[in-house]
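Dear Dr. H.,

I hope your travels went smoothly. While you were away I took the liberty of generating a structure for the chain from your last submission, since the lab meeting agenda had it listed for discussion. I wanted you to have the full record in hand beforehand rather than looking at slides cold. The sequence, exactly as received, is reproduced here:
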Amino acid sequence: MKKRSEPSLSVTPEKTSFNGEILRHDQEWYEKETITGEIIDHSFSGCRFDHVTLPESMESCGYTDCLFVHCDFSNCRMQESAFRRCAFEDCRLIGTDLEDSFFEDIRFEHCSMRYANFSASRWKRAAFLSSDCSECSFTSCTFADMELSDDQFEQAEFGGCRLAGMDFSSCSISGMLVSTEDLKGIIVNEEQAVVLAELLGIHVKHDSRNMLG
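The corresponding predicted structure, in token form, is as follows:
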């Protein structure tokens, strides 16, 4: 697995207020701000978002070397976005729509992402760390070099995804929706293997007899 790159903020961003009139944003720092309006086709490079509430629509935007800390993306429409070398720390993405987006060298850490829609997105070297992805949709996604640690994927949907090589062993996957074909090569612990078997209609019989007796 190739090492994931972190955001490169070699220059300290300049604190400023968001200006929706310009399309390109470089080395800017937004702090304790609520962004309003419809933001489409904007690009952000080397920016920091700190305690920022995002607007309802930020579609088709590009983000490179950006850091999001304690931000609220809840119910934001962000379809067809692209993220490269970005990190999300303690953010809320509840119900966020990121369908058909691209993620490369990404870290989500301590994020609440329930009901988020990532359908048809492409993932490359992404990490989910101690985050809640319950009831998220990852249908028809492609994954490469993923890192999962202590996450919740309860009732998350992974239909049409190849999960080979993805290690869910430290995560909660109760009720996860996935097909038999997509499970090939998945890495789980013993308890999870029983849960997945039951999801597929396989009933595991626990024999309490002493087989050595």
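Two observations you may find useful: Residues 190-199 form the longest helix (10 residues). The mean pLDDT is 91.

With kind regards,
E. W.
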